[in-house]
Amino acid sequence: MNKKLAAALSGGAVLVLVLSGCGDDEGDKVNDWAKTFCDQAQPQIQKRANANQLIISTAADSKPATIQAADSRAFQDIADADRALAKAVESAGAPPVENGEKIQQDAIKELNATAVAYDGLKKQVDALDTSNQQKFADGLKVVSDNLAKIQNMDQDAVAKLQAGELGQAMAKQPGCQTPKASTPPTASPKAGAPATKSATTPSAKPSASAKSEE
User: Fold this and answer.
1) pLDDT tens-digit profile of 110-151?
2) pLDDT in tens, 144-160
3) 117 contact partners, CB below 8 Å, separation of at least 6
4) To 10 degrees, what angle do helices 28-56 and 64-92 make?
5) pLDDT digits over 7-18, tens only?
6) Residue 201 CB burial class (10 angstroms; 0-12, 13-18, ≥19)
7) Is the pLDDT of residue 203 over 50?
8) 124 within 8 A of 57, measured Cβ to Cβ
9) How many Å apart are CA 172 and CA 187, to the nearest integer?
């Protein structure tokens, strides 16, 4: 279960991480836009990678309170990162490519929408009953199912930015390269430690410990 959750987060979580490869010489304007965006995006891409790692690293047999704390923190970090990424796209201006203004506006709108969606997941996790392991596991399954849907939103949000010459230009920028995730200092919420192999349920969500071993 946990693996599915981790996979879902990794898939759409980090903007532009999938970029690889370089194209022939791109126009200076496109390269300049890519540098402007990627320099601002790098800290947020790193934050998302760390959040994903927090979820992945949580022990499947952790206490519900520990899993809840880790998942809650991760979802909050991802939401914050998405909002910051939206601002980075806005700050960089419309990319100098065909339909650049529309690409920019669509990315901003979709990144903000995913941020709101992750806020919703955080609220769902925070509301789970950690005093009953079975109820907690059942609740995590619902969160997991919702995460699977949000994952598609995440991917759509940056798909156009990653296309064509714009994507090739970003692929050359250090700021848009896949970062090495470092587990954030354990989230220590009231419930206890961090970790995060959370007992997640079957689908993409960290959670429900009991079923998370998969």
Assistant:
1) 999 999 999 999 999 999 999 998 999 899 989 988 988 887
2) 889 888 877 777 777 77
3) 146, 150, 153
4) 170
5) 444 444 434 333
6) buried
7) no
8) no
9) 34
The amino acid sitting at 207 is S
Cα–Cα distance for residue pair 211/112, rounded to 1 Å: 31
Place of tokens 């532009």: 16
Q: Which amino acid is at 169?
A: A
φ, ψ (nearest 5 deg) of residue 67: -65, -45
Question: pLDDT tens-digit profile of 158-195?
Answer: 777 888 888 889 989 988 887 776 655 444 443 333 33
Rounded Cα distance between 95 and 125, Å, is 37
* Helix residue ranges, H only, the chain: 2-13, 28-56, 64-92, 100-126, 133-159, 164-171
* Tokens standing for residue 133: 């392991």
Buried b (16+ CB within 10 A) or exposed e, 52-90: bbbbbbbbbebbbbbbbbbbbbbbbbbbbbbbbbbbbbb
Contact 201, 137 (CB under 8 A): yes
